[in-house]
Amino acid sequence: MSSNEAYRSRNMETSGSSGASTSGNAGAGGIGHDDSYNPAASGSSNSSRNNKQTNILNENTYLKPASKQAYFSDEKVLIPDDEHTNVRFSFRKLWAFTGPGFLMSIAYLDPGNIESDLQSGAAAKYKILWVLLWATVLGLLMQRLAARLGVVTGLHLAEMCYRQYKRLPRWILWIMIEIAIIGSDMQEVIGTAIAIYLLSNKVVPLWGGVLITIIDTFTFLFLDKYGLRKLEFLFAFLITVMAVTFGYEYIVSAPNQAEVMEGMFVPWCSGCNSDVLLQAVGIVGAVIMPHNLYLHSALVKSRDIDRRQPQKVSEANFYFFIEASVALFVSFIINLFVVGVFAHGMYGKTNNDVLEVCVNRSMYDDAKTSFVDSDGGNALIDADLYKGGLFLGCTFGAAAMYIWGVGILAAGQSSTMTGTYAGQFSMEGFLNLQWPRWRRVLVTRLIAIVPTFCLALFTKMEDLTNMNDILNAVMSLQLPFAAIPTIAFTSCTAIMGEFVNGLGNKIVSILLTVVVIAVNLYFVVVQVEQFSITGGLLALVCIFAILYLLFNLYLVIHMAACMGNQRLMNSRWVQRWVLPSQNSFSIKNANSTYASELTLSDNGISIYSIKSQPKTN
Question: Where is this chain compositionally biased, Low complexity type (predicted)?
């Protein structure tokens, strides 16, 4: 590994919070504060000022600079300097920026997404591939905003929420995002357990697979002690495993390529019923995950970007966008493989059709207990991950079933690790929590593992795999709590400076978010209706719905104020209940530097310090 690719610099801190910009900077780590906070500064005036600020700590105060953050706490990747070559595009720089986008893209490949893919293929053949394509594009646009927030400010989304929301809404946001992480983690752990169940030929029960997932996730997460790039390579290897295994299934099944192309680029679904429409909506809910915005905004902090120079910030935004585009393109191709395989093999098939193919196969006994229905086997297949593996084994041989299991294992294992990182970033940011890494990992994992283990121990395989739609609905409800803050902060001049969203970006991002949220809410309503809720439980659901809408309205008001709506900013009610207690949403905060000070330290002793002067227009 060259020194230009990765450089281990211990305890790199920028103005109090991992590169966080101070008050008066484009990064609004200190919005509302009139004085800069320079921890490594010397002199009596700076010392007295620091002591003074220490005495007035509040909910807007910076995170502790000595805190050890997940994933990039001990090492940052240096960006090679190619300015002397006058090259507009550098593959060396792209390579240095490559990593965070691919870790982010794993959320698009988790077992929940894979199951939605195979279900959409079995239900609609290739007709709603275009929904998968455009859901991925919408996801890219939102991920771009999240990455820009982290690059420009040096703060990830949860850290920014800690500074920009009152205590109660901040806690509500954290709870909602934790629920989304739990829902996603349950899908990932269930998928991993099913993969282990398939690969072990049912020797390892589902609950045993859940326990194995806990142990190996801890093992993999601590690999980052051996270097940031090595950890990123591990994730790249798992993505490659998914591409190879699902690509093999695609080649073996050989779907009609003309139909695949038509389904991908023709936005129409002729003859589709309500079930297919619901499946299309489920794809959107499965692909665009709320906690992934928090994750991506934090991962980009692993690159050493000089935020004092707007050119460097703009360059980082450019390369991160290219990397995220490539990563999500790869994830789309892998999802396409899964849809194509089961669209070609399962579409229009009944349970009896599969059993006929399985007659002379070793997995016939398992198929008899799985491919059953109340209509004597004449109902269409209700696909899930386990049935998908059995179907491939019956159709193409046992090798295809085991290869499918390896792909699902890679998807589940990689997504559980990134999900754990998302949980750590969420706790660190929202709660300003300074825990040792082992404790953060343990708490984050247990929150999701305990309910998943209970389900695996006390329910059947059919009940476990059919939870996918319910969990997608739960995560769909949480999407506004990531999308609205992301748009709000990236549209605030006081936070983003010259990198604030333009009018076109604001309109497009808001419209797309409204569409996605509306689609997801429709999916949630349909799921709730299927439970035929009545009486007191229905009343509770209605109360929750009202509170849910009111909190979304609260976030929208905050977003409008961030965007500079003077009427809201001057409202006493908004100032008291919505805006930060030391609010200063004004353009003047954007007219200075991106980082007040960069300090390199060794064993707590400052060895090099750069102080920048305010930028003038």
Answer: 15-25, 37-51
Q: Are 589 and 614 in contact (CB under 8 A)?
A: no
Q: How many helices (H) and strands (E) does the chain have?
A: 26, 5
Query: Would you list the DSSP string of 221-264?
Result: HGGGGG-HHHHHHHHHHHHHHHHHHHHHHHHHH---HHHHHHHH
415 and 241 Cβ atoms separated by less than 8 Å: no
- Contact by Cβ (8 Å): 415, 188: yes
Task: Give the residue among 425, 422, 416, 303 at the shortest CA–CA distance from 12.
Answer: 303
What SS3 class is residue 610?
strand
Q: CA separation (Å) from 211 to 159, 323, 454, 457?
A: 32, 34, 11, 11
- DSSP class of residue 601 equals E
Is there a contact between 549 and 541 (Cβ–Cβ < 8 Å)?
no
d(CA 574, CA 410): 47
User: Can you tell me which residue has the tokens 């194509």?
Assistant: 340
Q: Classify residue 498 by its DSSP letter.
A: G
CA atoms of 378 and 381, how far apart (whole Å): 9
Does the pLDDT of residue 270 top 60, yes or no?
A: yes
**Euclidean distance between CA atoms 590 and 187, whole angstroms:** 42
Going by C-alpha positions, the residue among 111, 105, 249 that lies closest to residue 192 is 111
- Write b or e for each residue in 137-170: b if 16 or more Cβ atoms lie within 10 A of its Cβ, otherwise e: ebbbebbbbbbbbbbbbbbbbbbbbbbbbbeebb
Of residues 501, 609, 605, the one with CA closest to residue 559: 501
Q: Hey, what domains does the chain have and what are their CATH numbers?
A: 102-508 (1.20.1740.10)
DSSP SS3 for 602: strand
Quickly list DSSP for 326-348. Answer: HHHHHHHHHHHHHHHHHHHHHTT
Burial 213-223 (b: 16+ CB within 10 A, else e): bbeebeebbee
pLDDT tens for 577-589 read 888 865 444 333 3
Lowest mean pLDDT among 258-272, 395-409, 513-527: 513-527
Total-model pTM: 0.81
Nearest one of 35, 28, 110, 18 to 416, comparing CA atoms: 110
Average pLDDT, the chain: 79
Provide the 8-state DSSP code for 361. Answer: S
Structure tokens at 435: 């825990």
pLDDT for 285 equals 75
Band of the pLDDT at 29, cuts 50, 70, 90?
very low
Say if residues 493 and 587 touch (Cβ distance below 8 Å): yes
Length of the chain: 617
CA distance 14 to 148: 18
> Which one-letter amino acid corresponds to residue 351?
N
The first and second tokens of residue 256, run together, are 């009609």
Q: How many CA atoms lie within 13 A of 59 on its CB side?
A: 19
The arithmetic mean of pLDDT across residues 485-512, rounded, is 90
